[in-house]
Design goal:
mainly beta; 5-stranded mixed beta sheet; 3-stranded mixed beta sheet; 1 helix; 28% strand; binds FE2/S2 (inorganic) cluster
Amino acid sequence: MPNDTGFRGLADDARRAVTIHFDGQPVSAREGDSVAAALLVADYPATRITPAGGVPRGPYCMMGICFDCLVEIDGIANLQACMTPVRDGMKVRSMPGARDLGGEENG
Ligand code: FES
């Protein structure tokens, strides 16, 4: 599969294979990968849409500084994909626009 992100997995990677799901699609990764690395290797460059401008954003710094990699993981919003290791069966969702804060008092 062509990969426009330029990220590639290691050719002879002996680490255990795991599968996460991104917006319902299976993504293969290796134990120890960050969610961001797994998504970039799988050619998913964007993980969220900005609330103000409506533009796509994705992992940039890969070290917890820029917050451009925010995703929802297993129902918890605003987690940094670059700082979160993959776990087999993990459910990752992109974050389109503003986060729902819940409750009418926040609306
Ligand atoms: S890529 Fe910058 S905080 Fe995750």
